[in-house]
Design a protein that fits this description.
single chain; 167 residues; mainly alpha; 5 helices
Length: 167
């Protein structure tokens, strides 16, 4: 890592980003590129900027929390749009919200205990990496399935859905 140093101990304090003339130009350029790429692919900036923050020398806890916050705002704005267009079944959404909250709380408690037991923050980095691998695999699977469906019936390429109707 070319950024600040983070010790492996869970009680250590990170020193932050060491700014040099090179880093002052490179990091904003990388962050801007990450933002453009995230926008082009329609993903939250946190997904792209989490690993970038780790490379900058930001502590894993801070990187994970900042990424989650960016994703929360992206998901929240998407949810508001879907609610405004009538595309959300409220009771189903509330059930998913409750389950998501409980699972997130359990995951947070598990991660805190695991980091304390192992005495290594690198667990958080491996979890972030594993999540990215799973998300990439799921997106790849969905893409292959979609291409397979189109190859089965090429007419499906020319069928346009409506953004205004809820089926």
């Amino acid at each position: 890592s070319q950024g600040g140093a983070c010790s492996g101990s869970s009680s250590a304090v990170c020193s932050g980003i060491h700014w040099t003339a090179r880093n002052s130009l490179l990091y904003p350029m990388l962050c801007s590129t990450a933002g453009v790429v995230a926008g082009l692919f329609g993903v939250g900036g946190g997904i792209v900027k989490g690993p970038l923050m780790l490379e900058l020398g930001v502590c894993p806890e801070v990187s994970a929390a900042t990424s989650a916050t960016m994703i929360m705002f992206t998901a929240g704005s998407a949810a508001v749009v879907h609610i405004n267009f009538g595309g959300v079944v409220v009771d189903y959404a509330l059930a998913l919200l409750a389950v998501g909250f409980v699972i997130t709380l359990l995951g947070q408690l598990f991660t805190i205990r695991l980091v304390r037991a192992l005495g290594r923050r690198s667990v958080i980095i491996f979890m972030m990496g594993g999540l990215m691998v799973l998300a990439t695999a799921a997106a790849g699977y969905q893409s292959v399935r979609t291409v397979g469906d189109v190859l089965q019936d090429p007419r499906g390429l020319w069928v346009w859905g409506s953004v205004c109707k809820h089926h």
